[in-house]
Amino acid sequence: MAMDLARYQALADYPYFTYGSLMDAAIFACVTGSQPQVRGPGWLEDQRRTRLANQSFPMVDDQAGCRVFGLVLEPTGVEALARLHTYETADYHLRLRQVSCLEGTIDALVFEPSGRAAAGSEIWHLSDWQIASKPMVLWVQQQIAERLPMPGFDPWPCAPVDPDQQAAFEAYMEQSDRLFDQLEALWHAQNSDSASDEFDALGHRPINRLH
User: Fold this and answer.
1) What is the pTM of this model?
2) Is the peptide bond before 113 cis (omega within 30 degrees of 0)?
């Protein structure tokens, strides 16, 4: 699903639940430009967390009796939602769903698979991802921020979204996705020996986000 800026305006005041790489505070800060404000732990009932096929990033799908644990974050705001969706790519869409937490059951925003990428069967673990993929993702995100500035947000969040602004953000998301692929390939070319050793030691394949 492409960016929907008007929808972000409507959802900006809801807390955000993350179950994947954005549980890492450094990744979250690099993507959004601000530190995560953690409300506490949370979990999705009757769900399991696996890797997307041929990728290092996770997805959730139905599995009776299982739980997917993650973090509930305070509302991120409109700009952060746009940045988060750019990072997640069109492989995910933003949903409002019930999340369990220490205070009970709340409505929170969750990025779930859009169906564009194939599902995998391997269970995903944050600690493995941090070893195998975090250095590359941090470097790529920093390069994207330097090379591809995000369009401006004025006069958000009060005024209606301008169609030209919507188009600019959709183009930015597509350009960011392509640039990620190019920079990822460059990273692996420059770090092929050490990167291969890390992936082999964990039994993982290198990230493949080519669409």
Assistant:
1) 0.85
2) no
Q: What separation in angstroms does the CA of 106 have from each of 84, 94, 172?
A: 21, 16, 32
CA distance 108 to 36: 15
Residue pLDDT, tens place only, 72-129 = 999 988 889 989 999 999 889 999 999 999 999 999 999 998 888 888 889 999 999 9
Q: Rounded to an integer, what distance in angstroms lies between the CA atom of residue 48 and that of residue 68? A: 6
Could you please state the CATH topology (level 3) that the domain comprising 1-211 is classified under.
Answer: Hypothetical upf0131 protein ytfp (3.10.490)
Q: What whole-number distance in Å separates Cα of residue 129 and Cα of residue 207?
A: 10
CB 74 within 8 A of CB 92: no
Q: Which amino acid, one-letter code, is at 71?
A: L
Residues in a beta bridge with 119:
52
How far apart, in whole angstroms, are the C-alpha atoms of residue 17 and residue 67? 14
Q: What is the DSSP string of the chain?
A: ----HHHHHHHTTS-EEE-SGGGSHHHHHHHHSS---EEEEEEEEEEEEEEETTSSSEEEEEEEEEEEEEEEE----HHHHHHHHHHH-TTEEEEEEEEEETTEEEEEEEEEE-SSSPEEEEEP-HHHHHHHTHHHHHHHHHHHHHHSPPPP-TTTTTSPPPHHHHHHHHHHHHHHHHHHHHHHHHHHHHTHHHHHHHHHHHT-PPP----
For residues 144 and 138, what is the distance between their CA atoms, to the nearest angstrom?
A: 10
Strand partners, 62: 47
